[in-house]
Design a protein that fits this description.
13-stranded mixed beta sheet; signal; mainly beta; outer membrane lipoprotein receptor (LolB), chain A; TAT_signal; globular; lipoprotein
Length: about 220
């Protein structure tokens, strides 16, 4: 069966529907079954969350290949560049006609096929959590679930004031302890997953990679809400 080319709609972009090919690293995540309510955290949960915060706060730059699927059958792959705080760049490989850039304020989505640019407040997208200057899960976020098995564990978070914007689940491998995947469930029940491969840290990026100017003749839209 041919793969569907990934093209997100506005609701998916508020959830930043970026996902991964193949099975989830943490296949038993209950993304569809449970409401996004704050979890009662055990001491072990709190220790794992502290490990996650320390891991993210130790990352200033990162480059990786990503692959993605969503629950509608969409597929995409490409290269991710991240520079904290606030900078992201997703370069999609053909045939997906997308470029996504975060400039510290806006998440910019450029569809090269239909010549359209959409801007979303970076702080309103779940992926904005990963590029905060300091990642703390008790700062404007609620942890709704912590799951673990022998090889991986996962932490799900929501923004309490914007629950409809999506639930973000971060997945980590153990031995070595690495960030490998995120999943987003939006209000429409669309589940999307990103898996990272060939991860490199402490990469030097040119500033221009994290800026975007609308090309001539392109329709631009800004979504403030």
């Amino acid at each position: 069966m041919p793969k569907t080319v990934f093209r997100p709609d506005r609701r998916q972009m508020l959830g930043l529907a970026l996902g991964a090919a193949g099975l989830s690293l943490f296949a038993r995540l209950s993304l569809f079954a449970r409401p996004s309510l704050a979890a009662a955290l055990s001491d072990r949960d709190k220790a794992d969350i502290a490990r996650v915060e320390a891991l993210f706060n130790g990352i200033r730059t990162l480059e990786a290949r990503f692959t993605q699927v969503d629950s509608n059958g969409g597929f995409a792959e490409g290269k991710l560049m991240l520079r904290r705080p606030g900078r992201l760049r997703f370069e999609y490989a053909p045939p997906t006609p997308l470029l996504i850039v975060a400039d510290g304020t806006w998440l910019v989505v450029y569809d090269t096929e239909i010549k359209q640019v959409d801007r979303y407040p970076l702080g309103r997208t779940p992926i904005g959590v990963l590029v905060r200057d300091k990642v703390k899960f008790d700062d404007g976020l609620e942890v709704t679930e912590v799951l673990r098995d022998a090889q991986a564990f996962a932490v799900s978070v929501v923004a309490p004031e914007h629950r409809d914007d999506g639930k973000l689940t971060l997945v980590f491998t153990e031995n070595p302890f690495e960030f490998r995947q995120w999943q987003v469930l939006d209000a429409q029940g669309i589940n999307t997953v990103v898996t990272l491969e060939d991860i490199r840290q402490d990469v030097t990026f040119e500033n221009k990679l994290f800026t975007f100017a609308d090309p001539p003749g392109v329709t631009g839209n800004r979504h403030d809400r």
